[in-house]
Write a structure and sequence with these properties.
With about 475 residues, this protein is α/β, with parallel strands linked by helices. It has 15 helices and eleven strands. A hairpin with a 5-residue loop joins strand 9 and strand 10. InterPro entries: YcjX-like.
Length: about 475
Amino acid sequence: MIGRFADAVTRGVEDVANSVTEVFDPTVRLGVTGLSRAGKTVFITSLVANLMDRGRMGGFSGASRIETAFLQPQPDDTVPRFEFEKHLGALTSAQPHWPEGTRAVSELRLSLKVRPSGMLGGLRGPRVVHLDIVDYPGEWLLDLGLMEKTYDAWSARALTRLASWGAEGYAAAMAEVDGAAKLQEPVAQTLAAAYTSALRAARDAGAYDLTPGRFLLPGDLEGSPVLTFAPLPPGEAPRGSLRREMERRFDAYKAKVVQPFFRDHFARLDRQVVLLDVLGAIRRGPRAVEEMRAAIADILSAFKPGALGWLMALLGARRVDRVLFAATKADHLHHTQHARLTDILDAMVSDARRRADFAGAGTRVLALAALRATVEEERVHKGETLPVVRGRLMETGKEAALFPGELPPDASHILTPAAQGAEVWLDGDYDLMEFAPAPLTLRPGEGPPFIRLDRAAEFLLADRV
């Protein structure tokens, strides 16, 4: 208790010092979050590139006030730098490809030299606004929902989820152990390995609510006791038993992994982007849609959105005051269906939006593509004109035109079957393909092409520049 108090005091002093500095050198901390395969790396790369070369940013009113934008070393020397140049090179090379996904926390500082506006603008020189972007793995994001759970509550939910995805391998491994027996480390390791394999299999099948997230992407914690536990059904837990040790390690995981991650990154954000591959979930079926909705609800319950008074902000308190929910890969659909995609996402996050709005945070829902990989066409098929998208397929590398089917005009036609546990869509599957990035020819002053990325920047940054 004393140690936690001392840590809080130390951090409070640091936050006050940082806040005083920001009065003269304002900083916006933007968190980019989302589940796996949502496109966090591409979003950050394209946003930074288009803020540096603003030729396409017509929907961002602040673009005209930015004289220049340049990269600087990020303020936190203990966090790896986001590999912007490497990722941009992957997207803009002669043989473009998607960059590797996020595997650890990283940060990037983009400094904006902003021309003042208003009646007194001519009397003042330009000022600098720092944009600190924090990126972290989607797998780790899922752990935020564990902060308020006990080991027994987590075990019950984890076992139910795995049973619904057919994890026979872990059930067989669990049947071989006695939770009340004395702990033997090889048994704990075998059980944890079996549980990790079950999580990976469920993820490949379309599951999203998979915890602990570090089991899927352990980083430098791989093999440590804090990642060597697994869910067990309720039962006796005498001192020194396997079940007692599983519970202790679960609590240690929350205290030593989840809480520091939340404190050091989430609790220091000003603006939040939540990216979701809604189309990918729809393609996998109703169960995947419901899994995504439930996972996001758990994650967002850990946020503390809302507006802060100027005095609290000066004293170092931070609270997310704007949250953008974005359905990615909108370029996989013709623009005539983007409004329907937006409506589906809006319905999926409606509870979280209402909580954020009530707390005083502004929210926005968008369908976007941080990098446009397709072009739109109309094709005649069996006498009917269809709106299609054409691009280079990931699997074959060949050009293809695709009509994935129409999303329903009412979002409940997607969410209701998902909530009711339907196995398949009643009106057939959605034929959504994965496209590779297209070769680009960028003119001077232009960033990579996108869909509505400028509107995202308008919502997140316009008031700060």
